[in-house]
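Bug #2210: token dump truncated for Apolipoprotein Db?
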Amino acid sequence: MTKKMSAASLLLLLLPLVSAQTYHWGPCPTAKVQPNFNLQQYLGRWYEIARLPASFERGTCIQANYALREDGTIRVLNSGLEEPAKLGVSFSYFSPYGQYWVLTSDYTSLSVVYSCTDILRIFHIDFAWILGRSRILPPETIRYAKNLMIGEGIDLSRMKFTNQTGCRDD
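Reproduced locally. Full output below:
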């Protein structure tokens, strides 16, 4: 089997897996992460304000709770309502640990997160989130977060807002 045939076969096999994601040709962009990141201040509940499409996230009222495990790794508990600095995280049982880069966070209201999976440097799959400590962020804060990601070469053309209305706080 030729190298071109192998790459084409691999792409065809992976297509169903990436169809709900945001993918682009070429390797992942290299985004700058927040200097002097403080993990202890980052832990706790964050609400998803907006995201690039991800097959493992659907629904409304999405939030994540970050906690430190005894072994020093981070536990991420995502929850939501569903209808018919550099951290490593796994978002599902089927995905390997991947990069989770905090591009910026003030720890009290906003966090901008980016993750990218490079597939043989042929193409990459992007994940990006705007997170808030509250369910709603001011428009100027969202604009700042988007401009930061665009400045890092991240394509936000498919970014969608998460519905955080009618949610119960627990």
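Output looks complete on our side. Helices lie at 3-18, 39-42, 139-151. Marking as cannot-reproduce; reopen if the truncation happens again.
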